[in-house]
Specification:
Layout lengths: L8 H12 L3 H14 L4 E7 L5 E6 L9 H4 L11 H5 L10 H8 L1 E7 L6 E5 L5 E4 L4 E7 L6 H4 L5 H18 L4 E6 L2 E6 L4 H9 L1 H5 L1 E8 L2 E8 L11 E5 L2 E2 L3 H11 L11 E6 L5 E2 L10 E2 L2 H17 L2 H6 L8 E3 H5 L1 H8 L15 H7 L4 H5 L20 H4 L14 H5 L4 H4 L4 E6 L3 E6 L2 E6 H18 L4 E11 L2 H9 L1 H7 L2 E6 L2 E8 L7 H13 L3 H6 L2 H12 L9 H13 L13 E5 H7 L5
Parallel strand pairs: 1-7, 11-13
Antiparallel strand pairs: 1-2, 2-6, 3-4, 3-6, 4-5, 7-8, 9-10, 9-16, 10-13, 11-12, 14-15, 17-18, 18-19, 19-23, 20-22, 21-22
Helix pairs in contact: 1-5, 2-7, 10-11, 20-25, 21-23, 23-25
Bound molecules: adenosine-5'-diphosphate and magnesium ion (MG).
């Protein structure tokens, strides 16, 4: 073995570069963060060939004094911390003092800077550390050219220009999302890709994530003691097939953290299908002493002192925000101090209107044709049957039922009869005066093909997917009921149905679980089960069908697992089978009862599978469609 010797500085830095300078995007990250730490108001980034050929970042920050230029390129040289105490409550992006040294060891690097109060700028050449006067108004320009020119082995790992550029772009977005107060520009191969003036959070988020995202996201701003969570999280309708639009910042630093990701994921479990992903830009702020950022050279991982508390806080803040249905939000007095608002409403009122406009009308055309037989049958099984309690809504709240098929003249109040020509909308006059205040989702007009409820509210027409809406209501009700002892409805005549041997075994093994949910089941023969009692909420559901489905699910899991982890899945199954089916005709009071239930239910905007339950067609949407006033 050769003798032991100290490595040269260059080699040490090249080794360190392996951790810090993984690719052009990591150079960009370090240099951008330095510009941010320098208190810059405007930062200009120029890339060539995906950043491999050149990364040039100009800022208007505090600059570096001439006699510190050489030091800035030294390893372990920093102006940001001085002792352990500083390290434990670091408030800057950088603090390790190794980035510039590492970059200068693997690329042709120059630093041009003019410190405040200096007569002119100075430039240092990273290769020979020579310093010479230079021209620059203020701030610092870092120029990094020919990455890995002297380390060909690493150069081979670089991907195509397009890929490296994409990584740089992503890095730029992270910094830009974290700091909307800084004006930022990015050009690639001479073409400006992002031009972002200093703005507020909503505007910056819209510029980088798209107006679409903002229109379909909820803004949140929650705090609990020293913790604060703010930002924007997408509603389920905006879910995506990949995790590409997820940004979490801790004290302004982009992080990928299992704990935080898990808390977010959990907040979406009930409202998002498993293989869809939410989009979000979230900012967690806490005392720097509560989080260790010195876990990873690139500082993308962090460690929390109070991990559990943070998880809970993030989960609850997000769950609360997502649970507010659009209807309940609409009902709320805007003047009230609200921590949660629809993001688009805070940013651009028009965006919300766009969001509410459904796809082209053709989208509603694929409903199955009405079948006389089904419609007849359904009359007996109605929404009131399903909710179990035949509530009579206050009579003043119910508009007189409108015989849709009847001739308009028959029921139009004479006072509103049109003088001639254009007919007025007759239903409007029958509605309560303040439909908007008391009933955001409005009042039912009728049912469309046994599938959709049509209702009128202050803004125009509301379309409700009857089954999806009821499914969500049932699901939420079942959840709260099962937290206590479920109220049970004994069946006058037990429902007997045949099952397979496997289902029989599952029924026996899970009798206790089922009893806990409100089902009383006993064998009625070798391959027959009798149901004697069901949860009140499901009193009118198709019992046999529902239990077969439940047993099928129970079969696959040990009882203990079912009670805890899979309870909500079972509830979802119950809700799906218990919910009012398409083609059941509902009376107007029943439809209104469903609308009121939706308003009172958390997360009522989506069914358990993340599909929307209702949609608004505003008067202006309709006017546009009919080209009125054009
Ligand atoms: N754009 C800049 N403006 C002002 N000072 C800078 C800039 N970039 C780097 N510096 C100075 O150079 C030092 C070394 O930078 P760096 O190697 O990235 O380490 P760190 O950021 O961890 O301190 C910084 O501490 C800072 O004082
Ligand atoms: Mg740095």
């Amino acid at each position: 073995m050769p003798s032991i010797h100290l490595l040269s500085d260059l080699l040490i830095n090249q080794i360190a570069a392996g951790e810090v300078v993984e690719r052009p995007a990591s150079v960009l990250k370090e240099v951008l963060e330095n510009a941010v730490d320098a208190g810059s108001r405007a930062i200009d980034v120029q890339l060539e060939q995906g950043g491999v050929r050149r990364i040039r970042v100009a800022d208007d920050g505090c600059g570096i004094a001439k006699d510190e230029l050489a030091l800035a390129l030294e390893r372990h040289a920093t102006s940001k911390i001085a002792n352990l105490d500083d390290l434990e409550r670091v408030g800057t992006m950088g603090f390790r003092g190794e980035a510039l040294a590492a970059i200068a060891a693997v690329a042709r690097t120059t630093l041009t800077s003019r410190a405040e109060g200096s007569a002119h700028a100075w430039r240092i050449d990273g290769s020979d550390r020579s310093v010479a006067p230079a021209a620059l108004g203020a701030g610092t320009v870092v120029d990094v050219a020919d990455l890995y020119y002297n380390t060909p082995a690493r150069r081979k790992f670089l991907k195509s220009e397009g890929t490296e550029y994409a990584h740089c772009d992503e890095m730029f977005r992270r910094v830009a999302l974290a700091r909307p107060d800084i004006g930022l520009q990015l050009a690639h191969n001479g073409r400006v890709v992002h031009r972002l003036p200093a703005a507020d959070h909503a505007r910056r988020v819209a510029a980088l994530m798209g107006d679409d995202f903002l229109a379909q996201a909820r803004a949140l701003d929650a705090d609990a003691g020293p913790l604060r969570l703010s930002g924007f999280a997408s509603l389920p309708a905006y879910s995506r097939a990949s995790r590409d639009a997820q940004y979490f910042f801790v004290n302004g630093r982009f992080v990928r953290d299992k704990l935080l990701t898990h808390a977010v994921r959990q907040a979406y479990t009930d409202i998002l299908h498993g293989n869809r992903h939410p989009a979000y830009v979230l900012f967690l702020e806490l005392d720097p002493a509560g989080v260790d950022v010195n876990v990873h050279p690139a500082k993308i991982e962090v460690r929390f002192r109070e991990a559990r508390a943070i998880h809970q806080f993030v989960f609850h803040a997000l769950t609360r925000t997502l649970a507010e249905s659009g209807a309940s939000l609409a009902a709320r007095d805007e003047a009230e101090a609200v921590t949660t608002t629809t993001a688009s409403a805070a940013y651009a009122p028009e965006a919300r209107t766009q969001d509410e406009r459904p796809r082209p009308f053709g989208g509603y055309g694929n409903a199955p044709p009405v079948q006389g037989r089904l419609a007849m049958e359904s009359a007996s099984r109605s929404y009131f049957d399903f909710v179990g309690t035949a509530r009579e809504p206050a009579p003043t709240a119910i508009p007189a039922p409108m015989p849709m098929a009847a001739g308009a003249q028959d029921f139009r109040p004479t006072a509103f009869a049109p003088a001639a020509g254009r007919p007025t909308t007759p239903v409007a006059t029958a509605l309560p005066q303040h439909a908007d205040d008391s009933a955001p989702l409005g009042y039912a007009l009728g049912q469309l093909h046994g599938i959709y409820i049509l209702a009128q509210n202050a803004k125009g027409l509301v379309l409700v997917d009857m089954h999806a809406a009821h499914e969500r209501i049932l699901y939420e009700k079942l959840k709260t009921v099962l937290d206590g002892t479920p109220s049970v409805q004994r069946l006058l005549i037990p429902a007997v149905f045949s099952v397979s041997a496997k289902d029989m075994a599952a029924a026996e093994e899970c009798a206790e679980v089922l009893a806990g949910m409100g089902f009383e089941i006993a064998p009625a023969g070798p391959q027959e089960l009798a149901v004697r009692a069901v949860p009140v909420l499901l009193a009118n559901a198709p019992v046999a069908e529902l239990l077969r489905k439940l047993l099928e699910e129970l079969r696959e899991y040990p009882a203990s697992e079912v009670v805890t982890a899979r309870r909500n899945e079972l509830l979802a199954t119950m809700a799906c089978h218990g919910a009012v089916r398409a083609h059941r005709s509902l009376t107007i009071p029943e439809m209104n009862a469903l609308l009121r239930d939706m308003e009172a239910t958390e997360r009522a905007d989506q069914c358990n599978h993340g599909r929307p339950t209702w949609n608004q067609l505003t008067m202006s949407d309709l006017d546009r469609f009919f080209m009125r006033g054009q």
